Amino acid sequence: YGKNTIKFLRLHKEGKKHCVKEVEVCTHLRLTSAQEYLDGNNSLVIPTDTIKNIVLVLAKKNGIPTLEQFAIDICKHFMTTFCQVAYVKTYVQEVPWQRLHENGTPHIHSFICVPDGIRFCEAEQCRNGPLVVFAGIKDLKLMKTTQSGFEGFYKNEHTTLPERHDRILCGELFCKWSYGECKDFDFDCIWNKARECILEAFSGPPDCGEYSPSYQKTVNCIQMLVLSKVSQVQVIEVVLNNTFYNVVDMKNLGLTNDKEVLVPVETPYGSCACTLARKKFLEA
Asked: Which of 129, 157, 188 is the last residue of a domain?
């Protein structure tokens, strides 16, 4: 049991300069006894309102140096404070506020919300077990207008989809990775590096791009690049929900539409998902 969607803004001041972190936190506990379920005995139950207040107090006292460190702080607090807690899991996601710049100069107290993907993390721990940390990005919308196709797929009497060697590749990406056992990582640096790998693998070189024969291959390329460049990542999960675009037929309007006006196919949409792990992690 626990408390969901604890939303708050943490404001930190460095002289005239203001720094903000707006987050949403979900914290869940498993107790050493199930007596509250079986017997209606609430003597070990930590009220969810108390859970919420603890999260807010930790934000006040410790700040939010990184999302991962804040999730770790929450897990450690419940494990060290309450002997009846057998397991704790905390999820934290960030509202994407970015500092405004005017003519290249960063503003001291103004921000803009840029929806270019939502950063999140999870930390979980069993009593007498290791603290495990996950991180990721979700709601990241990506598109490339060429260098994508889908050919040579299986066909039978139900197949109506034509082969395409040049199409728009567009989707909303969810990516989550595991560090394994928690260590003293630079979580901000790792997250930014992983995000750069995702964008690089999706798009290819800036002057020419890179051909994608399928959404599945693009998912695998993202995972392989992250694993090759970010040594701290042990397991990576990627889900790519696809958005398809159809060319508008303008013949009745007396116009030729050479893939210049397209409309998105909202539903149904395709989805590709894959989890990839380092061999040594699986063996361990």
From this structure: 129
